[in-house]
């Protein structure tokens, strides 16, 4: 089975979605259409999870300049801040 058309279409969908996010025209982190398309690829054995991750990383890199896996965790992240509850980090007081 030729999986290239599936991979090209998924890449196109992801690039369109990431471009909308980058341009501020979309706030959703995930698109049900894209999630369904990826799930169908898995069910039909067109791709596996490793393939999907590579496609996602490549599309993300084309739009944002870095792979998705690197964007999740900033390189200068301070782990100590993660131990502090959000409401305390943001100087908010709970009533």
Quick rundown:
The chain is mostly helical and 95 residues long. The chain has helices spanning 4-22, 32-43, 49-64, 68-72, 79-82, 86-89. The longest helix has 19 residues, at 4-22.
Explain what the structure shows:
With 95 residues, this protein is mainly alpha-helical. Helix 1 packs across helix 3. The chain has one domain. The protein has 6 helices and no strands. The mean pLDDT is 82. Helices cover 63% and strands 0% of the residues.
* Major sheet size, sense and barrel closure: none
* Separate helix tally: 6
Give the integer mean of the pLDDT values: 82
Count of discrete domains: 1
Classification by helices and strands = mainly alpha
- What pattern of helices and strands is seen along the backbone? HHHHHH
Secondary-structure blueprint:
Blueprint: H1 4-22, H2 32-43, H3 49-64, H4 68-72, H5 79-82, H6 86-89
Helix pairs in contact: 1-2, 1-3
Any descriptors?
mainly alpha; 0% strand; single chain; 95 residues
